[in-house]
Amino acid sequence: MNIICRYFLRVVLFFLLVTFSSFVSNAKSHSSHLLDDGISWELAQYRKNSISNLSYFLKMSVPENKDLDIESTLELRFHLGNRQDVILDFCESPDKIHEIIRLSEKGKKPETSVCKWECKNGHLVIPRQYACQGENAFIIRFTAGNQGLNRRDGYIYSLFVPDRAHTVFPCFDQPNLKARFSLELEIPENWKVAQNGVQEECSQQVMNPGRKVVKHVLETPIPTYLFAFAAGEFQYQLFSEGNKTIGAFYRETDSLRIAQLPEIMHQVVFSLNWLEDFTGLKYPFPKYDLVILPGFQFGGMEHVGATFYNDNTLFLSANPTPDELLARTQLISHETAHMWFGDAVTMDWFNDVWTKEVFANYFAAEITEPMFPDIDHNLNWLKRYQAAAIAQDRTEGRTSIRQPLDNMKNAGLIYNNIIYNKAPVMMRKMVQMMGKEAFRRGIQQYVKQYLYDNATWDDLIAILDRETPEDLKSFSLDWVDTPMWPHYWAASWDDARIGDTYGFFELKPLQADSLMNRGWQSFQGSGAQRQALLMNLYENYLAKTGNITDEAFACFLIKNIEESSDPLLCSTMLSYLSLPLESMTEQSPVFERELWSLAQNHSRSEVRTGILRLLVGSMQSVAMVDSMYLLWQKGESSLLSINDFNTLTYELAIRMPEKADSLVAVQKERNTNPDRRKQFEYVARAVSPSAEERDRLFASLEKPENRRIEPWTLSLLYYLNHPLREEESVKYIRPALEWIWDIQKTGDIFFPANWCARLLSGHRSKAAYEEVEAFLADHPDMLPLLRNKVLSAEYYLKRANK
Length: 802
Known about the structure:
Blueprint: H1 2-31, H2 41-48, E1 51-61, E2 71-80, E3 86-89, E4 97-106, E5 109-114, E6 118-120, E7 123-126, E8 134-143, E9 149-152, E10 155-158, E11 179-188, E12 192-195, E13 198-200, E14 211-222, E15 229-232, E16 235-241, E17 244-250, H3 255-258, H4 261-279, E18 289-293, E19 300-301, E20 306-310, H5 311-314, H6 322-337, E21 345-347, H7 353-371, H8 377-393, H9 417-434, H10 436-450, E22 453-455, H11 457-465, H12 472-480, E23 487-489, E24 504-506, H13 509-522, H14 527-543, H15 550-563, H16 567-582, H17 588-601, H18 605-618, H19 622-634, H20 642-655, H21 660-670, H22 674-684, H23 691-700, H24 710-720, H25 726-738, H26 740-746, H27 751-760, H28 766-778, H29 784-793, H30 795-800
Parallel strand pairs: 1-11, 17-18, 18-20, 21-22, 23-24
Antiparallel strand pairs: 1-2, 2-8, 3-7, 4-5, 4-8, 6-7, 9-10, 10-15, 11-14, 12-15, 13-14, 16-17, 19-20
Helix pairs in contact: 4-6, 4-7, 6-7, 7-9, 8-9, 8-14, 10-11, 14-16, 15-16, 15-17, 16-18, 17-18, 19-20, 20-21, 21-22, 22-24, 24-27, 25-28, 26-27, 27-29
């Protein structure tokens, strides 16, 4: 008997010890960082170690009136490894949660119990007493938040990257908790729905007339940032090619733009086929649609089964330039590559978000090349990736490719030119080291091993290392984890390393002079080599090395635009002309006459378009303003699009304030598409001749609801800070920078960097520079990821005040 008692006592003590340890562990966790604002790394690991078999069944009733609430219900199911508090993310006021019910089954009879809950720091906590080790199910009735929803007149779409899903519905908002999703939308009867999953029949009865319910289901697991839907008054077309069928949702009304859809869809199919062949894996999701949206925040977003695009990135003008055609194709290829890299295989944490972007841009270049056989793709690579990476690396806001991240609330700040453009430069060099076939074998193993799962960059390197004798770990350390902007002395103006070696090659004055006055005309190198020399010359001009004056540089560029028949090289030179032209007010009539003549007579129409666009933004002389006004009065040009004429209207309104109201009124009527007209009206307010009206308009931007459509807001901010109104707009700099924390909190991933860039791009004065420096000095503890956005945007202003 004593033996039995002692045994029983040990069992009881062991049980109490385990229970107490679990309680202590839970208490310690809650006293540390689990319930910090945002999703901390600690919280993400805590949940990843215990939650699996996750699914969301979301029901939302979307009113036609965008100002009314969206009442919603979530059925949440998951397996819990240990009984513990269930910590969800929901960044809304506590009164938005109406009821939480626990579902359980005993035998075959379902039982329910109403739960208590706590809301703290953007988290919804269901106490452990309502959870169990094993399968759990909860019903949550709530009012959806609006931050991750873009609600417009006649349509709505979601955008949850990187951590915005929990601003709309309760969830585990981290990339390594993938889940199955079902979505049931009650919407107006004339609306269409695009969503990740496959549409299924819905048994729910609709009580309200003029409404319907649409249900989609996706069984393959995805993270919350890739869950998406769009609903509204869309047109829809279905396209088939080979064994692929793809749908397109759009609101465009211009028949010439809509006529581009077959070519767009062909490029999507080409990209899908190319990636299937390269990876050895068929398209890993059940369907593929495109959703083309006015005012969409990014060029595109790779939502599984429903890729979102900005309308102006896919629908081009009647006579697009090679740069525009290439950019569209590379965007399509980029987003399609994400279906494998980012969607099927997802980074474990957002510090590795660059791993999906490096694949997308590297493969975008590879996929685009066979679609444009007549293009010098080495030249385009330098323009598209290397030049863009250099544009940030030259600034004090440079970063390493992989950046540390402690909390998902800062994940949006990881995005920059380095992860999008320097990372593929790194990958191209790595492929050159190990060989294309070895790289392909490694990628096929990587996709196979981590399909529908999460992986890190180090996981990839471990696989690739087995395919090559090269030391990829050391290579990765140098390129990936170290901020790097190497500085070299050029052996000559045509140093063979320029272009092939990443970095800045400083020219001596005689070398720069030789290149501009003698070497260029006799140089027999390829288009890519000429592009590399142009890029390096521009970097020396910016760095004020080589004794390159504004006038000498402008003369060199204009002369070579005139003599070149390569539209890609010409567009590079035109982009470099803006800065020297703005510095030469007295010489502007001479240079503008030369450019105007080229705009009429250059052998390539694409170059003529580029010259006109340059002059629209840079015109200074009375004669050029008059010429542009005459062009505007015609209202059309084979070289310019409706968007170009909208820009011309803004620029003329600033230069001709007495005509501003009539210019805007006429151009408004020329915008026949209702979405485009709304955009024009929104931006045109910034070119008002009334300083008081502009001041009120700027002040209104402090409220997030007045900057919801970010591309429109950025245009408006630029015109409020237009170079010709610099003296009047210096006062906007400090308050606009003080709003940057709220911009980060309420805006999407590119908004903080773009906000700073548009705010400062029109400023060159000492007063403006002092405003920025004072702001930085007053905030020494500013998060480095955010501070870098200001430092990068400040580059040209700082250069002007050296």
